[in-house]
Design a protein that fits this description.
mainly beta, nine-stranded antiparallel beta sheet
Length: about 170
């Protein structure tokens, strides 16, 4: 049966869905359906371990959007009826940074071939003594290390492969 699958079409339809392109380019994401707060708070409750980077899109306004295929195996009780072990079926976590001050990408030792760079761990914390600077630093480490210095408040959406928002409980 696998011999009959057109993998290029499968990946285009399931891994890079049209609604994701529309959300990134046309600004069509429904941010009011998601979480608004700090990544520190989000990462205190959830992990990005074994998730995959899809990309980081920067805007000329200084804002940016991170797109991650989120591995729910470490993050129960997220309810996604479509979730399976196959990476193209994992829901997509979309993080909007209203203001990015620094973006630094450092190559890591491990490269993944399953649709992005694997994230080993992530942390986010205020910069400076007691967060006086008003900025946070977020580090995502895996196949590459990405360091972001940003304003504290972000918006986060969890979207299934059909383009529907999934509630993120307990935050």
């Amino acid at each position: 049966m696998d011999e009959d699958i057109d993998w290029d079409s499968f990946m285009e339809e399931h891994y890079d869905p049209d609604w994701l392109r529309k959300g990134l380019i046309d600004g069509a994401f429904s941010w009011e359906s998601g979480y608004t707060g700090t990544l520190t708070h989000f990462l205190d409750r959830y992990t990005l371990h074994d998730s995959y980077w899809v990309g980081l899109w920067l805007q000329t306004t200084g804002s940016g959007i991170a797109v991650i295929r989120w591995d729910l195996a470490w993050n129960q009780p997220i309810d996604d009826k479509e979730e399976r072990d196959d990476v193209p079926f994992w829901p997509i976590l979309v993080v909007r940074f209203e203001r990015l001050h620094v973006v630094r990408v450092v190559d890591g030792p491990r490269k993944e071939t399953r649709g992005g760079e694997s994230i080993t761990w992530a942390e986010s914390r205020p910069i400076g003594e007691a967060g006086i600077s008003g900025r946070h630093e977020t580090i995502l480490h895996g196949g590459v290390e990405i360091r972001l210095v940003h304003d504290p408040v972000v918006s986060i959406l969890l979207i299934n492969r059909s383009g529907e928002a999934i509630p993120i409980p307990d935050i």
